[in-house]
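Sample 1 of the test manifest.
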Amino acid sequence: MQTLEALTRDARALALGELTAPEAEVARQMQICNGCRYCEGFCAVFPAMTRRLEFGKADIHYMANLCHNCGACLHACQYAPPHDFAINVPKAMAQVRGQTYADYAWPPALGSLYQRNGLTLSVALAFGLALFLALAMLRQGTLWSTPVAGGFYAVFPHNLMVSLFAPIFLFAVLALAMGVMRFWRDVTPATSGAELTSPAAAEAAHAALKLKYLDGGHGEGCHNEDDAWTHARRRYHHLTFYGFMLCFSATSVATLYHYVLGWPAPYDLTTLPKLLGVIGGVSLTVGTAGLWRLNLRRHPDHGDAAQKPMDRGFIALLFLVSVTGLLLWLLGQTAAMPLMLAVHLGAVMALFLTLPYGKSAHGIFRTAALLRFAIEKRQPNRLGLGGE
Amino acid sequence: MTLDVLVIGGGNAALCAALMAREAGCSVTLLESAPREWRGGNSGHTRNLRCMHDAPQDVLVDAYPEEEFWQDLLKVTGGLTNEHLARLVIRHSATCRPWMVKHGVRFQPSLSGALHTARTNAFFMGGGKALVNAYYRSAEKLGVQIHYNAEVDSVELNEGRFVAASVMHKQANGSVRRERIEARTCVLAAGGFESNRDWLREAWGQNERGEYPADQFLIRGTRFNQGVLLKHMLAQGADRIGDPTQAHMVAIDARAPLYDGGICTRIDCVSLGVVVNREARRFYDEGEDFWPKRYAIWGRLVAQQPGQVAYSIIDAKAVGRFMPPVFEGTQADSLPELARKLGLDEATFMQTLNDYNAACREGTFDHTALDDCHTEGVTPAKTHWARPLDTAPFYAYAVRPGVTFTYLGLKTDDTTAVRFNDQPSPNLFVAGEMMAGNVLGKGYTAGVGMTIGTAFGRIAGEQAAKAVQAQKEGAEHANA
C-alpha cells in the first residue's frame, strides 16, 4: 500500500518530468548494470543501455517496455539480492512498465483501471454476462431451447451483435492507438529521433512475432521457475497469440462472407471461418492453460507481484472466451446453445471492453519499443568507449 | 559404500573437478562453505576465460597461438611462472570449451567496452554466475551430492595420503553439526585467503609510515574465501608456492562495498587524466600502456601510497570515453574547487596539475592507439594520451586497492597432486585459486584465472577418478 506522501510525490514527479520512485529505481540499477554489462547478449535492453550514460524518464519508459521479463539477467546477476546492490532488472522494469500502461492510457482518466485490474476485468465480465443473458431472456424468454432455423441469429440477430461489438472494438483500437502514439512521441527523441525505415520495421516485426527476446540470446529459451532454460513460455505464448489471431480472422472472414458475399452463418466445418475458429480456439485454450500453469509456478522474484491479478485475469478471460467458443461449436445443435452463446458473447464483450485497460497493452507498447530499438541501433553510437 | 571423490569448494575449479570425476563414473560429493545464494566463490564475478586458438572459433576472432599466450603470461608475471604448467593450461584452453558447452555454459561475443579482448577471451553469456548456475544444474542432474553451508576446517592425512575431511555443517538456527567424511580421493578447490582480513594484515605487515596497508583493502569477490583450508594444509606440511602479498589487485572506487563489489566498481578513466595521492602528487605514468594491460598494476601502486588512497582526476573531455563508473564522481567547476571538495591541499594540488598541464605536448589524441600526446619535463612522465585538464566540469574518483584473489597456494605438478616434501600425494589434488600461484607468481592477464581453474579443475577430477580406479583395482587384486 503506497502512502499518500508517495502518491503525491509520484504525481508531482509526473507533472514535472522528474522520476517517480519506480523510475528512479530503474535509473539506479541501470547505472550499476552499465558498469558490468555481462548480460549484453541476452536481449535488447542491455545493448540499449550501453548507448547511454544517463537514464532520463523517456529512456526508462523505452527500456522498461523493451524488457520481456525473461528472467535471464536476474538469475545471472552477481548483484542480485541478497547482494546489497539488490539488482533485479526484470522486477524494476515491470514496475515501470505497469506505470507506463496507466500513464499512457487514453482517455487518461481511465488509466486508473490498471490499478485494480482484477476488479476491472471482473466487473467487465459480470457486465458482459449480465447483458447477454438478460438480452437472451428478453428475446427468447428462456436460455434452454433448441432454436428454430436461423441458429445464433434466432437468439441475437446479426445486426444487434454488430451494433454492440463494432463500436466497442473500434473504441478499443482507437484507445490503444492514442496511447501508443503518445508513448512513441515521448520516446522518439530519446532513441535518436530517427524515422522508421523498412529494414528496422522488418527486424522489429521479426523480434515481436517470434518472441526473439524470450530465447535467452543463445536460442535455448528463458526462465520460469528457476535458473534452467525453457521454451515453454515462448511456445504457450505463441499458441495464445496466434490462436487469438486465428479466432479473430475467423470472425473477420465471416463478416466478409456475410456482407460482401451474402453468405450468412452457420458455416460448415470445412469452411474457412469454421476451420480458422476451431484451430484458433483449440490453440488459444491450450496456450492460455499453459501460460496459467507457468504463471502459478513462476519464480517469485520475476516481475512485479502487484501485476499478477492483471496477468492472470487476462489469461483467464482469454481462456473463457476460447473454451466457451469451442463449447458453442460443439453444443450448437442442442438446447444449451442459447446459454452458451450468451456466455461466450459476454466473455468476448468483457475482453473487448478491457482491451485498452489491461494486459493486452503489453503487446502494443513492447512492439513500439522494439521498433524504436531497431531504429536506434542503426544510428551511430555517440559514445566512444573503444579504448578501455 | 565409501565415497570415491570428495570435492572441497564450490567455484569453477571445484565444479569442473566434480563433473569430470562424475563423468568418469565416480561417486562425488561437493562441499560448498557458502549458502546456496552465495555459491560459486569468485567465479560468480568473472566474465571470460583466456583461450588459445589457431583459427577463428565461434566467438573468438583471428588466432591466439600458444606462443603468444605464453609470451603474454611470461611478461605479466615477470618470469615468476612455471613454463611446463603454464603451457599445459594454455593448450587445455584450446580444447575445453566444447566440454563447457556440454555442461550448459554459453558464450557471447566480447562485450561493448571490452572489444580489445575479442581475440583472446571467450565471454560467458550472462557472466560467471550463469556459468556457475549451469555447472550446478549439470552436477545435480548427473548425481553429484551437493552440500551448502558445509565448511571443511581440517583433513586427516596419513603420510601424505588423504583419509577424511572434517566438515562443519552450518545449520539455519546458527548451530553447527560436525561430520567426518571419508573418501578414496579428495580435490581441494576452496579458494585463496583474500577474504581473511587478519591474514592480509599479517601478510602485508606495517609500512614505513606505521600503517597496516591491508586494513584499507577492499575485497572484490566473495567473503567466503577465508583461507581456512589453505592455512591448515600449509600447517600440515604441504609444499607451498607464492608470496602472500601477491594477488590480483586493481584500483577500485573507494566507496565499493567491503566484499563482492565485483567488476562494476572499477575506475577506468586513469589513462584519460591524472592520478594523485593523498598528498596531491602524481606517482606513476598514467599513460604507460593501454588500460587493459595496466589496470592490474594500479591496485598495488595505490597500496603503496600514504593512506592507500588515490584520486583519478579527469575533465569534461574524458566523459563518455570510458566505462561509466558505478558511483557519481566528485564534480567541480574548477580545479581548486575540486581540490577543496576532495580535502586535498589546494596549493600542492594546483602545483601538480599546473606542472602537468604545462608539460603536455599535445599531438593527435587517439584513445584507441598508443598516441603521441605525452609530457615533457615532468616526473613521473605521462607517455600517452596526455592532454591538459582544462575543460570544466572536472571530476574525481577516490580509489583504493581492491583484491580479487591471492596467489599464495599449494605447490603442485601436472597431475595437480598436493605435494609433501616434494613427493606427490597419491590421492589428494588441488585446483583453482589454491594453486594458481604455480602459474601466476605475480601480475595478471584478463581471464587467465578462469583458464587456470578450468584446466586444473578438470585435470584434478580426471586424476582423482584415475586414483579411485587404481584403488579399486588394487583392492580387487588383493581379494583375488
